[in-house]
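ok here's the first one, seq then struct tokens
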Amino acid sequence: MMSLLANRFAEDGYDVEIINLNQHVVFYPIDSRVSLLFAEDEVGSSPVKKLKWLRRYVKQTRPDVVVPFMEAVYCFTLCALVGVDVPVVSSERIDPRKSPFLRNILRRVFLPLTDWFVVQTQDIKDFYPRFIQKKTSIIYNPVSEKVFNLPDVEKADTLISVGKLDDQKNHALLINAFAKVAPDFPSWKLVIYGEGPRRQSLQLTIDHLQLTDRALLPGRSEHVIEEMNKSKIFVFSSNYEGMSNAILEAVCVGLPVVTTNVSGAKELVQDGGYVVPIKSEEYLVQSMRSLMKDSALRKEMGDKNKGRAHIYKIDSIYSEWVALFNSIVYKQ
């Protein structure tokens, strides 16, 4: 999300800087016109030194607007910039209803200090008190332009899923659900793209269920959208999300979707798939089976998703951010 927006602003001639507070990992392509700064290169790993450095840096450079992404970062940034006359537009990227109690306390302490707040779904906006909602906008994530330029290809009997292999994504639920339908659909495979700490336990589950050749964990890929385009159904078993980029991409590719009822799922999927209760293997099985056996239904739902894809084009989302920044910075 940040990489797509930063690149788009740079293309339009804006001066854009991305400050990375903790890590040196840059997984997504960043336009050469976007400046990348790493706080640890400046002052080391001390949070206090980073806090002081960020405050000093913003006071010196006087950006038109500072946009911290994610709760830990916007709380840190708002703390660092207390009393600094630079607008801060904080952006929530995950469902706060699933956050630990202490982190929600931090939100309540620091969010009143933000000039504006951006969330991804109505569910997330509704979580916050009314005085925060009054300065909150809902802006969806954009998708990569390559989603709209995919070739027509022959699709395989594949259920595809994308997400980090961790407890949040609950891939064990998905694998167990696939085990229930696999005997009736011998040509179908389940492919889960992603990497993470649960790889070994998930592989053990796959082996135990005798799905070694049919439930695959190929790891992380930079070509997930192309793999979606070759598949017939997108499935998602997460326990919580802000707004899932994976669901969003699947919708825009034109796949029918089966997803748990995470934040944003109903807004994204609408009548282009099934939204099932979180952690419900029974409903996941029913929905997967319904789509696997019915090619006409898959096409109908996939076409409905693809028909709404233009809403998530980078130009549309970018325009919403530009309008918001103009309203904050220039009072337009």
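and now the second one, same deal
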Amino acid sequence: MRANSPMKNAAAAGTIRLGDLTVNRLGFGAMRLCGPYAWGRRRKHDNERRVLGRVLELGINFIDTADSYGPEANETLLAETLYPYPSGIVIATKGGLVRPDRTSWVENGRPEHLRRALDGSLRRLRLERIDLYQFHAPDPKVPFAESMGALAELQRAGKIRHLGVSNVTVAQLDQARRIAPIVSVQNEYNLRNRSSDDVLAACERLGIAFLPWYPLGGSRGIRTSRIKEIAARHHVSTMRVALAWLLARSPVMLPIPGTESVEHLEDNVRAAALKLAPADLEDLA
């Protein structure tokens, strides 16, 4: 990678709409600012603040978090560091998963839990309304319509500006849209895992933003020979290639890579300006 490559702003990726909100099409996932397994806080609090400060400097104006990250610690960190929030910043959070211990993620879509979860997020983020509140995962023990119906009520009460869903099928997305307007879907998607291709296609058809979580697919996902060859041709990191591929994959794609490193953050943002050639995209198809 060229050490002297110029720093690019997230705006180079273009913009995307979330209802009546417009954000740059490269966001930041804050989960990795938690401790291991997204549990607790990291010891170096100054580093957390440096990363979030650099997020703003690099033109990232969409930050994704959840009440289950920490749990609760991630939302608290964002408010401690960024409040009062600069104009134009969209903080998106999620509810519907609980953490009984550091290795467990348990669905809880009961309406009473979602009401408490939303109020907790509002309090920790120091907001009166969440710009984008996402149902984190369908609960197999609770009818999906009941969970979404509770969130639709909270939206009508003025506590939620826009609703999104996460970890859903096309059928669940369709069901959610019959209950309330949906502006985003957040499913796992990366070069290695394209199992949500049908959900992405539905989002393209409907004009709904698609937020790929785990966008790099882990270390194995960015170390294949094909990605290494393309990275070498462009003199960039394999991570930058993986993110540029996502941006090229669909105009509704809104990647939200996370990191605890300013250096990695800067490299991720450079992906906003990386244009892969048709031959590159064919190699990664």
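notes on #2: The radius of gyration is 18 Å. The first strand starts at residue 15 and ends at 18.
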